[in-house]
Design goal:
Layout (H helix, E strand, L loop, with lengths): L5 H12 L10 E4 L4 H13 L6 H8 L5 E8 L5 E11 L8 E10 L2 E9 L1 H9 L4 H5 L2 E3 L14 E8 L2 E8 L8 E5 L16 E7 L1
Antiparallel strand pairs: 1-10, 2-3, 3-4, 4-5, 5-6, 7-8, 8-9, 9-10
Length: 213
């Protein structure tokens, strides 16, 4: 039997649930329903859903990081270079007491944008910056990413990503680009220092909350 692709599945979900992302849509916690953090996340989503569930409406509900921008001439896989703006933040994503560097990049697939985070130690970030964020430096970085859809088991394929600090602990919120039409929103935690994870791979998240429409 031919397997359906992630996008085919979500398009089918959209056909049958296209009304779920309208203002006043109903959401349910399928993981963490009794946890205060998950109840708080659900309240933020319900507040944002009074208008719509586009990422720019949800982002300020969770994120309070101070992002910085860096414009560099970076090499592309085809050998050419282009001036690109990279957005990054310095914060303790893994809650080990040491600040990490997170580089966020927006990409496009079939006219739909999504985000990838690349996560570095300070030394790794400075090394990547010294190479003007050459594509090989990013290819070999750890990430909160859509590469091979590592969070699809949680209902998240192509994500929007928000940092969230709740009661002194940093979490990562992933909103599937089709949330409200088949995808999920999850709250996850990076367990252990980032340098303990393999380079060039997606960082596995410890699932704390999952919200479905």
């Amino acid at each position: 039997m031919r397997k359906r692709s992630y996008l085919q599945t979500l398009v089918s979900c959209w056909v049958f649930t296209m009304s779920t992302a309208t203002p006043g849509a109903q959401f349910r916690l399928v993981t963490g329903a009794d946890l205060p953090i998950c109840k708080a996340a659900a309240a933020k989503v319900r507040h944002a859903s009074r208008t719509n569930l586009m990422s720019e409406e949800l982002r300020p509900e969770f994120s309070d990081l101070e992002w910085q921008e860096d414009i560099v001439d970076t090499a592309l896989p085809n050998g050419s270079t282009e001036s690109r703006t990279f957005t990054f933040a310095e914060y303790d994503i893994d809650n080990d007491g040491t600040k990490d560097f997170v580089l966020t990049i927006r990409s496009m697939l079939r006219s739909q944008d999504f985000e990838t985070w690349y996560v570095f130690t300070r030394e790794e970030f400075l090394a990547a910056r010294s190479r003007n964020f050459h594509y090989e430096a990013l290819r070999d970085a750890r990430g909160i990413t859509s590469f091979k859809y590592p969070y699809l088991k949680y209902g998240v394929g192509l994500p929007y990503i928000f940092p969230w600090r709740f009661k002194g602990t940093n979490y990562v919120v992933l909103q599937d680009i089709y949330f409200g039409k088949g995808g999920s929103l999850i709250v996850g935690r990076v367990s252990g220092p980032v340098e303990g994870y393999a380079k060039g791979e997606a960082i596995p998240l410890e699932l704390v909350c999952r919200l479905d429409a």
